[in-house]
Amino acid sequence: MSEKPESDEERPCLHCLIADTIDEFYAEYGSLSGEKDTIDMDEIISALGKTVAELTYGSDATVRQRIVEDLLSEISRFEAEYASAPGSDMRH
User: Fold this and answer.
1) Cα separations (Å) of 33 from 40, 43, 46, 86, 90?
2) Can you tell me the distance from the alpha carbon of 26 to that of 18, in angstroms, rounded to the nearest whole number?
3) Cβ–Cβ contacts within 10 Å for residue 65, how many?
4) Which of 3, 39, 51, 61 is 20 to 30 Å from 28 by CA-CA measure?
5) pTM
6) How many whole angstroms separate alpha carbon 17 and alpha carbon 26?
7) Are 65 and 52 in contact (CB under 8 A)?
8) In terms of C-beta distances under 8 Å and separation of at least 24 residues, what long-range contacts does 1-10 make, across chains too?
9) In a structure prediction context, what are the per-residue pLDDT tens digits for the chain, which is 92 residues long?
10) pLDDT value of position 33
11) Three-state SS string across the chain, please?
């Protein structure tokens, strides 16, 4: 059995890192309309779409389609979770 270089407690949450990066980006650069500390959901959706496409580039069409379907499923699942628990802390 090999040892993991980092324990799960030391490993950062990818969701939190992405969310923090988005927050920091908009705090520093503002939205395309020039408003500081205002996020632009269209810009975020475009960036996430480009990222998924880049990460899956070279995969076959079936794999890419499954990834897109999994992403949509996860969005629906978390949307329902957050809608049923308003005010909950979405970050870990």
Assistant:
1) 9, 11, 16, 29, 27
2) 13
3) 12
4) 51
5) 0.73
6) 14
7) no
8) none
9) 445 555 667 899 999 999 999 999 998 888 888 777 788 999 999 999 999 999 999 999 999 999 999 999 999 998 888 888 766 556 55
10) 82
11) CCCCCCCCCCCCCHHHHHHHHHHHHHHHHCCCCCCCCCCCHHHHHHHHHHHHHHHHCCCCHHHHHHHHHHHHHHHHHHHHHHHHCCCCCCCC
Per-residue pLDDT, 2: 46
Task: Read off the tokens for 47.
Answer: 């960036």
In which residue are the tokens 């990460």 written? 55
CA dist., res. 65 & res. 23, Å (int): 29
Q: How many CB atoms lie within 10 A of CB 76?
A: 10
